[in-house]
Amino acid sequence: MSNTGTIFLVGAGPGDPDLLTIRAARLIERARVIVHDGLVDPAILALARKDAELISVAKRRSHHTLPQQEISDLLVRIARSGEDVVRLKGGDPFIFGRGGEEAEVAHQSGVPVEVVPGISAANGAAAAAQIALTHREASSIVSFVAGQCKGLKDQDWAGLAGKGRTLVIYMGVKTAPQIAEKLIEDGLAPDMPVAVIENGTRPEMRVLRGLLAGLPELVEREAVVSPALIVIGEVTARNAAALARQAQEAAR
Question: What residue stretches are annotated with the Tetrapyrrole methylase domain (predicted)?
């Protein structure tokens, strides 16, 4: 299929354009067709050539521009027309990015695929907030969980967080009450430190800290909106006071 284009599954990173990989930036700059998620920063899309076709397949809670199968089919159609297509995703394509599903459809259709990893939302946002997901004195295990998974109440979250562990929850803003209740029900201490990172790596980033039992109230009181990550574990409390002072001084 020499006249078939390639589907490039590209991670756009957590938001800040400076965190793109060199490979990702080069593909964006040369692509004639870019199919992108809604969370991709406009400054990243601005890197595209002026005649590039930008197709948004933005997903929001309870509203998708296109269902996932139709997105996969769209990518295959574009590639079969002979055009390379960049499928641009926030974070990393294979970490809650549905890149695996799109790659499978492409392989089944005989269309070549290349995956370009990106800095994940968890890594990027945590680093920007100066929260070490692992720490020799506080955490040797990290778990990534989707907060909007079906059957949330039926999941066994015992052991995902606690002493020596860090839990990072994607897409958990709307389900924060159920998450806190479920973790406490499964044995996690109500006074376990938590942090909520909103718009990680972007200029408007906020880092909100509290305790697990107060997570729902924290999210509601501060009117947290997506994109936001919830980080649970002792690492979120390390250096918190020093970072707060640093932020206050920077705001003066």
Answer: 6-215
